[in-house]
Amino acid sequence: MSTAMNFSAKSFKPRPPDKGAFPLDHFGECSAFKERFMQCLRDSGFESGACRERAMAYLQCRMDRQLMANEPLEKLGFKDLMDEKSEAERGKL
């Protein structure tokens, strides 16, 4: 039995995932947002729920600078924060 590969077989073409892969922030465009988020995590004992507003700001920065695909923040799990924000803005009127 031969263990050689059959090179005439259809070749596999890798494809990046739809979500989860995005360019690195080589120029540090969002590093201030990232640092605020990381500091919040350290201060809260790594309770991510306490830092959701900072996470949302970091992701918004990445989307604004095309470092990740534009997605509505509601689809990224921030619907409740977006609702609170819009209620607060209505209260100011």
TrEMBL record:
<dbReference type="InterPro" id="IPR009069">
    <property type="entry name" value="Cys_alpha_HP_mot_SF"/>
</dbReference>
<comment type="similarity">
    <text>Belongs to the COX19 family.</text>
</comment>
<protein>
    <recommendedName>
        <fullName>Cytochrome c oxidase assembly protein COX19</fullName>
    </recommendedName>
</protein>
<dbReference type="GO" id="GO:0033617">
    <property type="term" value="P:mitochondrial respiratory chain complex IV assembly"/>
</dbReference>
<dbReference type="InterPro" id="IPR010625">
    <property type="entry name" value="CHCH"/>
</dbReference>
<feature type="domain" description="CHCH">
    <location>
        <begin position="30"/>
        <end position="63"/>
    </location>
</feature>
<keyword id="KW-1015">Disulfide bond</keyword>
<dbReference type="GO" id="GO:0005758">
    <property type="term" value="C:mitochondrial intermembrane space"/>
</dbReference>
<dbReference type="Pfam" id="PF06747">
    <property type="entry name" value="CHCH"/>
</dbReference>
<keyword id="KW-0963">Cytoplasm</keyword>
<dbReference type="InterPro" id="IPR051383">
    <property type="entry name" value="COX19"/>
</dbReference>
